[in-house]
Amino acid sequence: MPIDKELEELFNDPLLDDIGREDLSLFEVPENLKPTEKDKPDYVARRVPCVNFSDYELGFKKVHIELKTGKRSIKKFNANALKPGNYYVIGGVVLLLEYIDDLVEKTKRKKKDARTRCIYENGTESDIFLDTLRRSLTSEGYFVTESIDTNDTVFDSKFEVTVDDIQYGWIYVLRSLSPNPQISSQKDLYKIGFSTTPVETRIANAINDTTYLMDKVEIVATWKTFNMNTQKFEALIHSFFSAVQFKMQLVDLSGSRFTAREWYVAPLGIIESVINRIIDGSIIHFRYNPSLFTLEQLPEKENSKEKYDTSGLKVLTLIIKQAWLDEILAGRKNIEYRQLKQTQLGKYTWVSNEDGKRYLTKYDLIRFYVGYSKDRQTALVEIIDTTYDGENQLVEYHLGNILEK
Prior knowledge:
Number of domains: 3
Number of strands: 23
Structural class: alpha+beta
Mean pLDDT: 79
């Protein structure tokens, strides 16, 4: 049966061309230091090719597109979200929980459990027990939300123009046309900014302006802004994408070095969705997950006066000075740096049994302590992303919401 035109267009969507994961290894580990092989989890061994994967392939592709355009988001997994027909993410891989079988009693533990059928986006399937799937998702998983169409009229409703309204300027998204390989090879690189003059006028001299990387740019999207503090609006966008700020040094016409600003690496659909959510006020319930290139919904209840449930989460404990903790609590410091010393490798990194490479340990939260006294101040803070500055040998923890203080 031939594929209809709608499905054919979806399969040919250019957004599918760059679906993949980056190699985050820091350095090779000498053979004599590689750890011994350990048995892999039982459920991994039971994965087999899915003979009817073609029935599910389109669904996976659609999920990826909707995640990159902000129509879907991810949420930290909770046990109540395990339902047939839902999509989940474990270790960066999307899976579909197709069905849950009848409960059976396990002979060894005399505990009832059920087999499942899980379809993975790499074309395999498994019949892992429901409890095993639950534990894996609790440890490192996400729930993929249902698709919600973007509200194209949000700007019209928020910026209803009358004779009394004053236009403050334009929010814009630009793409660089620079032939510099470090720039042209970077996927999803955009500048997000604000201008009080028409954007076409603002970028006319881009080739001589460090703001635009000393080269031509093209306009991807613009929005007129009325009745709002546009500078604060722009600052909120920059704060939201701080973990994916493009870091590169260039040389201007005078030969002086400068660092690129206001350039970010994120899918265009996500950027547009974030702007819409800032306008309608729902942005407070989201953050950007740079590891999965999608929006992540924050927990519904986050009361700093109550104990935060950290079960199933990896918590890093750090000692910090009072002045720096104050900056974090005030929202002025959103990155915590730690020197990667030989004596700290086990704390901040781990070595893969599969390829022998050393990787950054991905913690979910940081528990900060001021000093070592009994009555010391403490705070529990989310980690949005973990990156590595190889030049200065620094591990960078990008901080999110303050969960306890």
